[in-house]
UniProtKB/TrEMBL annotation, chain B:
Secretion signal span: none
Locations listed in the record: Nucleus
Organism expressing this protein natively: Magallana gigas (Pacific oyster)
Residue segments, region Disordered: 1-20
Protein name listed in UniProt: DNA polymerase delta subunit 2
Length: 106, 481
């Protein structure tokens, strides 16, 4: 009996991911620094928005968007901080627009 | 009812038809609608009512502050030694207005906030749930007042209990109030009230002078569909307004009616039949709702009225409209015949409008009835007067009266002083002129239920007084005057 190799019955199939996985890792390394900066900015912004939500002087925050709350506070002369409005106009992301408790029903 | 000016015209009635008969022209009134704030633009119910209370406080607080500064000037009392008389010496400075979290003990100051009345007997869903195992539901009462009710003052951050001169029994939750007093050192957590005040009624726009008599008719509580419906009296009313009754003199008087307002409860509570919900579906499949026939009758009545005069139909507690205030206009598809006339309008409850420069504001009575339930006030005119003083049409909304969760505005705040304030579906007709401290004169009208009293109200736009119109059929008892 000749030595039968399993590879004659089941040929080797090279998976396409194997090579790319290592390439991906090497790709990520130089770009993390720019990602970090954007991430840090967004964390700061989200912190400012969170503080805006928690400031009780501007009234209840659940059930309305932050921009609506800002405009309502502006209308009644409560002096909401302008930087909050700038952040809200920058991004349309739900994380920014909706209040802290957006995942909870009422 | 209509005074006979000049001689009789005995030949008019039962006379031959003549070619020279003059047609009566109905008076028209300059009408403008101011109820836009009561129309709901978007309907999102996923909001809490805290926004409505916050909005109410922010909007009314500056006005209450102005009222407080005007009324209260801080003073000291100096008793003269020889004559033993007390002299009030103004201190020459302004009153101190504080928020609740800035209160200092024993400092006489003014605090502005929302009144909250804690009532033991108020029905509460939490009590129902906690008593489930005992299966003792709370009985439905006509009044939920009790001796032990307490008043709290709430601003955005805190609340404090109020003691002193403020009458608990006649107050209701939801009114924005300024209280003058202090929190004593030895009784912390309680605010001793010496004086209190509300928002000042805004200045009235003066009414223009009208040359001729013009009337506006208010009618409410037709309650079609019940055993007590007064179809004959209603037909008499329609015939009177459309000028089918009386001789030509009477008809020319009726032609001075320029508008008819139907203030709610055109259908009766028995049309809101909930029994069909309990019965099995196969039993109730073929039965039509009780309201279908009643609405057909109403359509008929309004077609007759609208063919001759402007009609505004407001929804009421028992009408097929939404439960929460402000009630939206009834859908025109319910009145296919009457809707063909441009003089037929379905409007909101509450309703705010101007005819010939006279500003009317009114509701179908739900706010007044709610205040009757949750305070010791009984007379509808007293309550209407109080709503003007408090500056709010429905202060108990949303606490005990259903209300839409507004967040941008509170449309029930009375910003412009009306000339006539009316409430429909009251037990009897009554009217009074309320004189405000700024010289305003408001006619308060309580419009009775037509099904009980067969009475409608005519308001004279020139002289701003009103008279009741009573219709008695031979089979009914004489109504009490």
């Amino acid at each position: 009996m000749a030595a039968k190799q399993i590879t004659s019955a089941f040929p080797i199939v090279k998976k396409p991911n194997r090579g790319q996985k290592s390439m991906k890792d090497s790709d990520q390394l130089p770009s993390t620094s720019t990602h970090d900066q954007a991430a840090v900015d967004s964390i700061d912004d989200l912190q400012i928005l969170k503080n805006f939500d928690l400031t009780l002087e501007f009234g209840p925050c659940t059930g309305i968007t932050r921009l609506e709350r800002w405009e309502r506070a502006q209308k009644h002369g409560l002096n909401p901080p302008d930087e909050v409005k700038d952040i809200l106009l920058k991004s349309k992301d739900e994380e920014y627009q909706m209040c802290l408790w957006k995942d909870y029903e009422i | 009812m209509f005074e006979k000016k000049g001689g009789n015209h005995p030949d008019d009635l039962l006379s031959k038809p003549s070619q020279t008969h003059k047609a009566c022209e109905r008076q028209s009134g300059n009408f403008s609608d101011c109820s836009d704030r009561f129309l709901l633009k978007d309907k999102t119910f996923s909001r809490q009512y805290a926004h409505l209370y916050a909005e109410r406080l922010w909007e009314v607080r500056p006005k209450v502050e102005a009222s407080a500064r005007k009324k209260w000037v801080p003073y000291t009392v100096h008793t003269m030694r020889l004559t033993h008389t007390s002299v009030y010496i103004p201190l020459g400075k302004d009153i101190v207005i504080r928020k609740l979290h800035e209160l200092k003990s024993d400092e006489t100051c003014v605090v502005i906030g929302t009144l909250f009345k804690h009532m033991e007997l108020k029905p509460s869903i939490l009590q129902e749930i906690s008593e489930e195992h005992n299966l003792m539901p709370q009985p439905v009462r006509t009044k939920y007042v009790d001796e032990s009710d307490k008043l709290y003052l709430e601003d955005e951050l805190q609340r404090i209990i109020l003691m002193g001169d403020l009458d608990v029994q006649t107050s209701v939750t939801g009114v924005i109030i300024a209280v003058y007093g202090k929190e004593p050192e030895d009784d912390q957590g309680k605010f001793h009230v010496e004086k209190y005040c509300f928002q000042m009624l805004s200045d009235q726009v003066p009414r223009p002078v009208i040359q001729n008599d013009k009337y506006l008719v208010l009618i409410s509580g037709l309650e079609i569909g019940s055993n007590e419906e007064q179809i004959f009296s209603l037909q008499l009313f329609v015939d009177m307004v459309t000028g089918m009754l009386g001789n030509s003199e009477e008809q020319s008087h009726c032609a001075e009616i320029c508008r008819v307002i139907v203030a709610g409860n055109s259908l009766s509570s028995s049309t809101q039949d909930k029994d069909s919900l309990q019965k099995a579906k196969y039993l109730s499949k073929k039965t039509a709702a009780g309201s279908v026939d009643a609405v057909k009758t109403l359509d008929d009545v309004f077609t007759q009225l609208a063919s001759s005069v402007d009609v505004d139909l407001m929804p009421g507690e028992y009408d097929p409209a939404n439960y929460t205030l402000p009630q939206q206009p009834l859908h025109k598809c319910m009145f296919p015949e009457a809707s063909r006339y441009p003089t037929f309008h379905t409007v909101t409850n509450p309703y705010d409008f101007k005819v010939e420069g006279v500003r009317f504001l009114g509701t179908s009575g739900q706010a007044v009835q709610d205040i009757v339930k949750y305070s010791t006030n009984e007379e509808p005119l007293d309550i209407l007067e109080k709503t003007l003083e408090w500056g709010h049409l429905a202060p108990t909304a949303p606490d005990t009266l259903g209300c839409y969760p507004f967040y941008k505005e509170d449309p029930f705040i009375i910003n412009d002083c009306p000339h006539v304030l009316f409430a429909g579906n009251m037990t009897k007709f009554d009217s009074k002129v309320f004189k405000g401290c700024g010289g305003q004169e408001v006619l308060l009208v309580s419009v009775p239920r037509f099904s009980q009293t067969s009475t409608a109200v005519m308001v004279n736009l020139r002289t701003q007084d009103c008279v009741p119109m009573q219709f008695a059929a031979p089979s009914t008892m004489e109504p009490n005057r």
